[in-house]
What does this fold into?
Amino acid sequence: MYREALISLRFNLTDNCDAAVCLEPDLASVQENGRGGSAVFTTVLSSASTFTCSSCHVMSETDGFASDGFRRPGHSLLNSTRRATYKNGIFDKMLDAVNVCVTEWMNATAWTEADTDWINLLNWLDDQSTVTTADPLLIDVVAPPDDLTGGDVSNGRELFNTRCIVCHGFDGAGTQLAPPITGIGLPTDYIARRIRTSGPPDSVAYDGLVEGVMPFWGADRLSDGELVDYSCLCSIRGGCRYRHGWGRPDEFGCNGLQQYQCQDRSERYPE
It folds into this structure.
């Protein structure tokens, strides 16, 4: 579909022609100019951010999960080039939708139609399409539920290590993409609000964002029940997470923490 690829081709001088001097193309020298599409997909675009396209998206999913077993906040990009509209119908061009991510979350300069990175990424995405036309996606910014009590730490940890692990690391220990998030006792309402509404308040595509560099999670990517369990996990503070792992009996008083039900703030913070 998109064949505006930029390539380089070397020519050799030859006298194997009717003219005195001819140029003969060296077909083995053909290569795509700039980074290939897969490299653009996995490469940081700006020194002001560590996010890449692959931080939030994958090419394909099965039941909402990528082949690595993880779910990311963004939807699969399979057949994305075949959609008629983007960002809830705001944009007709995919480039405009992509530039929302590029400028608002990746802190990079918006691409133009002539940018090599954009052309190569677009071709790479389109080459993997499996349909002629694809339905547009509906992406809602949804506020968290008012009642965040009753969360389960064990389930919250399992959720964390199949979703948030991509940026925050195993058990929330932190990575270059995001800071440590567990063991410090963050308020459940703060956690839930960040998960559901993090992003630039002046976004050109999404209403209801309340600041934060983390990409938000829509309700179709993380349900209310999952949000409650996850918020419970991150609200717990104390030494257990960092000294002896989750729920293992030890001298720091974390016995049975893995099965603890979050009901009352004063009860769920083992020191």
In short: The CA atoms of residues 113 and 151 lie 47 Å apart. The longest strand covers residues 22-32.
